[in-house]
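Example A, followed by Example B.
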Amino acid sequence: MSNSMKGMSLITLEEFSPEQVQALLSQAIELKRKKKARIFPRSLADRNFCLIFQRPSCRTRTAFAIAAADEGAQAHAMSPQEIRFGSGESIKDIARVLGRMFDGIAIRAYDTPLIEEVAEHAGVPVWNALTEQHHPTQALADFMTLQENGIALPGAKMAYVGEGKANVVTSLMVAAAKLGVELRVVTPKGHHPEPSLVDRLLGWRHNDKAKIVVTSDMREGLLGADAVYADMWVPMEGNWDIPAMARDFRGYQINRAAMAMTENPRAIFLHCMPSQHNLETEFARKHPEAIEATDEVFDGPLSRAIDQAENRMHTIKALMVSTV
């Protein structure tokens, strides 16, 4: 199955079939096992990857760099000042040159069309490391985390509580439709994902267990969930009225009472991070009304947020190995 992905780019995850997505997850689990055993196949020896991050990154950038090194490749980070997409040089020209020098390109940008244009002209795999619209490598790590916790796909039930128009939940919806997962998007009115997007994703679902349920009712969304997925309610970049935005999410904090709404004592807690779950950050001290989860849950025995963050490395490694 890996050979069928050779040369593919990851832009939104829609370009991958359900079988290919599952193959990536299975390979990631195996690569994680090998890394824990200090076994490194180094299947990307003598390869060179370009990392372009126009926006801040902690987990994604680190995951790409370490995944490449584990498999014997070199990762070269380039700053926005060095890559002047469309300002000092055309996107097409930059993409063609980078494609001649590198075996794969990871890009974190503001808008997905930029990554699509690079992929069109580079001639090598291009991987979306996050845009305003999509975060596909995050979704891969999320579903890997479900599987390694014994939550079978298809048939899993996941409740996402947060901004319904966010890039993370968009990619979760894509993956859920492909893998037969019931995803409940729990978000206040006015924050629901676009109905046309939900309809489009469900229109080509490959498993009748795939569902996308959008609700503003916490109890309806969490009841029976195998996993409760929290996300920050507000952005940390840009000039926003944070108190006003956070007011919409009153009652949506993931705390012990919210987890009890699942009526599933084995329900795990997930978070894409960064997370505001205490007053240890400058942002949370300034905006305590925007704390989306409690320490009791985030650091509780059923939290898998840190595992989930680590799994970014393993799924990205599987992605690079499979497409290069």
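Example B, a separate protein, is given below in the same form.
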Amino acid sequence: MADPKRVLVTGGAGFIGRWVVKAFLADTRARVYVLDDFSNGVKENLAEFSGEPRLAGVKKGRIQSAKTVEDFVGKVKPDLCVHLAAQIIVQDSIDDPGGTFESDVRGTFNLLEACRAAGSRFAFMSTCMVYDLAAAKSGITELHPVLPRSPYAGAKLAGEHLAISYYHAYGMPVTVMRPFNTYGPHQKATGEGGVVSIFVSKQLRGEELRIYGTGRQTRDLLFVGDCADFVMRAGMSRAAEGRVLNASTGEDISINALARLVVDSAPGKTGSKIKRVKHIHPQSEIMKLCGDCAAAKKLLGWKPRVPLKKGIGLTRDWLSDLMERGDTTWQ
């Protein structure tokens, strides 16, 4: 499709959402609107765009409310809705599956209905966690079997199926996106934040980098700017309609090697040591996680461009600046 005139990004104040907003503002002529309840995202993530007139509206609201969604989508009339808003913490989904259902399933349904009425394209952000990761031996393609092992993953898979059903039942232009481990600036470095942000924050403070278990478990680490570029391309592509697409680098790295890279790539002596500790939940550990993004490369002309060492450096620069200013938004 041609550049959309109006783009709605749900969860646009979140980690990935902020980068998606930036990508649309930088690379298209679209007016961008954000719907976020700020339960995970923060207003500071959008602060750099405050003087940008094409960031046309930021509304605080919950996608669980059909009226909120209907009213805002009806007002904006987006050409494209990029749906990123979700309850994303796996443990929270286990403790409160009902809350995850309301946000990740009912919220997605509310948006699909409102976007169907508005004639909008729809790009749904899923997760690699829907795959049967216990059976993963090499690069995971979109044809790999699914097996959600948490209410979070189950809700995401339900959202995928809802979205694809609207493509077949109503001819609604829908694309499902499954990113692998995304990292970079604006990602929180505590709790279930990304392993890169957590390791870098500890290195900056001279603290011990703790690895749970053997450290031989691997991850496919995608820089968030590359992920945002993928999201923008997938949302705008006619060739991607009705498709499920992975976003990954196609390369994995062990947690042992990642920790060593974080420490060794730091300027000067950091005082940080690496220590392996007993795994808290060994039964739920994913030993190999590596995606195959050949379909996205072919359909979208997309490929990841930021190598891991550079991405770690960019993450370190961002966290270092925040720490020096006493800004705690990374926590």
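On Example B: The chain has ten helices and 13 strands.
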